[in-house]
Amino acid sequence: CPEIDIMEANNHAFQATLHRCDPAVNHHYSFCDRGGCEQTTRTKANAYGPGSDYNIDTTHPFDVETEFLKNDGMLSGMRTTLRQEGRVEVMEHSNCN
After folding, report:
1. What gap in Å lies between CA 75 and CA 43, rounded to an integer?
2. Which of 30, 36, 41, 68 has the smallest count of CB within 10 Å of its CB?
3. CA-to-CA distance for 52 and 59, rounded, in angstroms?
4. pTM for the whole thing?
C-alpha cells in the first residue's frame, strides 16, 4: 500500500484512507486506487464534531491511535481509534480489498 492517509481532519470530520495499488514493476505502480478505502466519522451520527452533542467533542483534546493490521506479514488493514474521556470511536479498514 504505497499511500496511506492516516489523518485527514477538521473540527467537523475525521477520515483515514488506505490506497491499494497493483504490484510495482521496476519500482513503478501502473495503477493505484485513487479514491481509496476511506473510513470517516461523517457516516456516523453524532460521532465527531464541536460540542457536547458529539461523542468526540472537537472543542477539547482527544487521542488518536492508528494500528496497522497484518496477515502473514502483509498489510491487511488499518484501525483508527479516537478516544476522549472514556468515549471511543473506531474506524475499521479490515474489509478493504
Report:
1. 25
2. 30
3. 9
4. 0.83
Q: What is the DSSP letter of 95?
A: T
Which residue in 27, 42, 89, 38 sits closest to 63, CA to CA? 89
What's the rounded Cα separation, in Å, for the pair 93 and 68? 9
Q: How far is CA 95 from CA 69, 76, 77, 92, in A?
A: 11, 9, 7, 8
pLDDT digits (tens, 9 = 90+) for 68-86: 888 888 777 889 999 999 9
Q: How many CB atoms lie within 10 A of CB 96?
A: 19
Contact assessment for residue 22 and residue 33, using Cβ atoms and an 8 Å cutoff: no
Residues 19-35 have a mean pLDDT of 80
